[in-house]
Amino acid sequence: MADRECYTASMNDEDDPFGVRSVAVSGVVSSALIAALVRKLGEKGLLTDVDVRDIYDDALHSLERSEAEAEQDVVDMYRQAREIIKIPLRDIPLPRDKS
Q1: 60 near 87, Cβ under 8 Å?
Q2: 78 contacts 63 by C-beta, under 8 angstroms
Q3: Do residues 14 and 55 both lie within one domain?
Q4: Are residue 39 and residue 86 in the same domain, yes or no?
Q5: Which domain holds residue 21?
């Protein structure tokens, strides 16, 4: 019950009448869940390292496209998001050329 009260209180926060904080928190939760899902599918062998890398690369390119079309006041948010996406890419081996 305490969790529901905390959630309800954050949804009705007088300091955040437009719910921006709630939207931001929702985005963080969704991102964490998707990243965990991709990682777990890779660990279980359902996705190859190449598949996982492709997913992160696609996310990175999506952010780059969105940043190019974004209003100037949110460009920094897209840059920060891209830097976060790049972190797991450092740990995923590059595919080897099979030729």
Answers
A1: no
A2: yes
A3: no
A4: no
A5: 1-46
Q: What is the pLDDT along the chain (99 residues), one digit of tens a residue?
A: 455 555 555 555 677 766 777 777 787 788 888 988 998 999 999 999 889 889 989 988 988 988 888 888 888 888 888 888 888 888 877 777 555
Closest alpha carbon to 91 in 56, 41, 47: 56
Dihedral of CA atoms 12, 17, 23, 29 in degrees, nearest 10, equals: -40
Q: Quote the tokens at residue 27.
A: 């985005």
**Cβ atoms of residues 89 and 57 within 8 Å:** yes
Radius of gyration for the chain, computed over Cα atoms and rounded to the nearest angstrom: 18
Same structural domain for residues 36 and 57?
Answer: no
Residue with tokens 């529901």: 4
Query: Closest Cα partner for 7 from 15, 19, 90?
Result: 19
Structure tokens at 68: 């190019």
